[in-house]
Amino acid sequence: MGFLDLFVAALMPVLKVLLITGLGLFLALDRIDLLGANARHYMNNLVFYLFGPALVVSQLGETITFQSLNTLWFMPVNILLTFMIGSILAWILIKITKTPPHLQGLVIGCCSAGNLGNLLLIIVPAVCMESNSPFGDSTICSTNGTTYASLSMAVGAIYIWTYVYIIMRIYSDKSAEDTDTNQPISDSESYKALLLSRKNSGSSGCSKEDELPLTISGEKLTVMEKIFQSVKKFTAKINLKMVFAPATIAAICGFIIGTVSPIRILMIGDSAPLRVIDRSASLLGEATIPCMTLIVGSNLLRGLRKSGVSVSVIVGIVAVRNIFLPLIGIGIVKAAHHLGMVESDSLYQFILLLQYALPPAMTVGVIAQLFKAGEGECSVIMLWSYALSALSLTLWSTFYMWLLQ
Q1: What is the pLDDT of residue 126?
Q2: How many CB atoms lie within 10 A of CB 26?
Q3: Can you say where in the cell this protein is located (predicted)?
Q4: In this predicted structure, what is the pLDDT of residue 336?
Q5: Which one of 37, 113, 259, 386 has the fewest beta carbons within 10 angstroms of its own beta carbon?
């Protein structure tokens, strides 16, 4: 296929995303207010708890088998690499731009976590439906592509709510501690603190000798007790409720349905006794893509009303996600294919490559709101990232399809 045909095949899905995203932004305007704050909240809950999980479980249940697991095992590894490499590039960006402490966790989150669910679920099936798509039969391509994208969404959710969540929490706590430390103390407060310390030392008779047993008891901790305390501190920073999000639970159910033969016979297929359950889940899942795209557009409206982040930080994040990560991703996927870790399925390789070229995940904004760290700045970053990703996604998709011919 010629470069122009590949460019058109890559451009059409991105244009569809832009049109529906623009519609979502328009519906969120104050004078229209069809996707105001309350409407976005309820629609987001429907997608998060109902439409998205229904799509994941139906697609994985229909296409996942023991044989396909041999092909898909590298995807979680590939996604983890996108997070780790993005974090390293974000750390370099922070040092170069001297990013303020309260925004450092946000920068790492935006550089490491891509939109591994929403955009892939929109772009990949749309590419398959194009008449000049290089991925063969449109029906098979669309089914397999949606399966790969659904697995990407489930795995990405686990990494975001463990890896990114912990990093942004650590940086937000550190920023809060620095703020408290640097906050000036009035003379009256320091005087009260001095009196209180003298009173405590006089009444309780505490001295260095009294503190010694505490130090000794701390030194008497066994290795296993120290490991247990470290694990406990680490798990305390993980939001297990969000790790086992509905999409993750749906992915587990989809794997069970697809790989356990008795369950698969009961639910999957034209003659399956319980096929109505699978058909109903599939019908609900069809609402996921348009609803998610509208939500993305309505959320971007906040970026037009916020400011406070430096241009250098925005440019750096855009460069990491649109230039450096995609270039590194080509080397990783090609090396994995050369070593036999990835099979010759061009659609699967296309999705692995595309995972490096996506704009930041919208979930990063949710985490920023949760910790109240850089909420307004996150909206501005998302606005510019998604506006520029229209061009970068088209170009990278075209190049990837040319590369995989």
Answers
A1: 82
A2: 16
A3: Endoplasmic reticulum membrane
A4: 93
A5: 37
